[in-house]
Every structure is written in C-alpha cells, then in structure tokens.
Design goal:
The protein is mostly helical. The protein contains 2 helices and no strands. The longest helix has 39 residues. The model has no long low-confidence stretch (mean pLDDT 86).
Length: 68
Amino acid sequence: MTVKELIKKEVDKLPDKLANEVYDFITFLESKNDKDNFAKSAQSISTIPFKKIWDNEEDAVYDYKKTF
C-alpha cells in the first residue's frame, strides 16, 4: 500500500472537523511548496543578469577569498 493510500484510509476515519484541519494543513504544504518553487525560479532567472553586476573588477575587492 502506498503512502497516499494509507493517508486516504486514515482520513476516511476522521470526523469532519478533523478532516477540515487535515485539509488546511495540506493546502498550507502546497502553498509553502509553491513559494519555495517560486523563490528557486526567481533565483535561477536572476543569476545571469546579476552576474554582470557581481563579476566585475571594480567590486572585486568585496569578493570573498579564503585566507587559510
């Protein structure tokens, strides 16, 4: 039996009030996942344009360099 099937089986046993809480938690997880995916996409998209700003001789003095 898959995890989804086990979850469905347990949810079927719950009274409506608790099932509503499970639903709220599921929508929270989906929202959190969507925000994480959006942040990763935005970071990926901005890497190339910001590379021109981050990688230049004028700002090289601020680059992190290991000293050990």
